[in-house]
Batch of 3 targets.
Target 1
Amino acid sequence: MNNLNLNCLLFLPYWEILNGFASHLQKLFQLMKIYLTDQKYKFKKHLDFLRTKKVMDYDKTILREKITTIKINTAKNIDQLNLDILFDYKIFPDRIMTFKNEWTDENRKMRIGDTIAQQVYIPPTKIFSQKIIFGVRINEIIDQPNRKGFSYETLEGHVEKGISTFTVEQLDNKLIFKIQTYSTPGNILTKLLGPIFSIPYQTFCTKTALNNIKKQLETQ
């Protein structure tokens, strides 16, 4: 066997790995919807498409848990607050994300099984950004005397795999807004970029959401 044939045999496993990686990326970009233009006028189309998508499989017991909270400075109790901003999903400022959900589209209250089409801006500005469409599905609505909110699971094509819960909670004489997530990267790109981009960006978005809800509730 000459050196050329030997080198080809040695390189073959790496070539197969590269081919597998390229195939995975191709499937990933088919699932992810990335645009340069704002998709707000096409939200209905995206929402209808995402309704057909399945929740990503996950095992909550092995996912990374993260809990973040912020105190709501108000003299009102939880039952005196108007929580429509929470249940209408007006959690993130529109410079980070815009959305369309099933219940407002159908002029009704949130239900388990409802889908939300999310348009995420990266970086967080509407003009000079990539617009990425993701989907999530409501899997629980929480309506307890001292705890109200909901949770959703991510759909196929999302950058994260797992579940997020958003609640306003009454703790004795203190009110808090809480975001609890169990998640892991949803694809190979977010696994690679997580430490340098995805995790810092998620932290920024979470902090911004906490302050956004705090501001809206405290001005009631």
Target 2
Amino acid sequence: MELTAPTPVHLIHVEPDVNVARFYGVELQPTLFGEVSVLRTRGRVGTNGQAMMVTNDDAAQAGEALQKLEGQKHCRGNIPVSDQNRPSAVVDLSSGLPFVWVF
């Protein structure tokens, strides 16, 4: 099964004034039985966080779920890691999870 879905979504929410530094990720994963799972990861920046997987019957349903989750997170103030425009923050993706150093 080949997925034609968008790339994984990696979002971050940083508010140094209130000590908030969170990451959120959503991606699609094929299963061995021809289904598609939506893998959600979330947590505090610098930790492994938590993961949750929801399995859908086909890629279209999973893609819709991914877009819905991404929209909800954007409404709550999360921004894509690639659009991190803060001059005082450096995003490190070498470990696979977003980690932000705030100076």
Target 3
Amino acid sequence: MKTSLAPSTRRKHLSALDRLYDSVQRQRGSDSLDRLIAEVDADALEDCLVGFLAQLRNEAAVTNVDTTSTWTCGVSFVSDMLRFFWNLRRSRVQNGSQAAQDRHPVPAART
């Protein structure tokens, strides 16, 4: 989350994330969202997000309150975390490849 956000905006984002975590916990058990993101379990994440969207739509229908920002914040968080883990894994693979090359350098061609 951006640190430059105004306190009220930060509270709204954190509230939306709390709601997402609560929704996933009700659907799959405790600590599930973090685990699903870390394991990049796309099918389970999709199921959880669909459940979260259904919850928000039902609440909006009953309360007549727009929940779009809550949904957007939740989806953005999951997308950002998946992107972070993807980049981290890619970096580790690239660093692992470099480390292997450092251990077993290819001799330079003689001319």
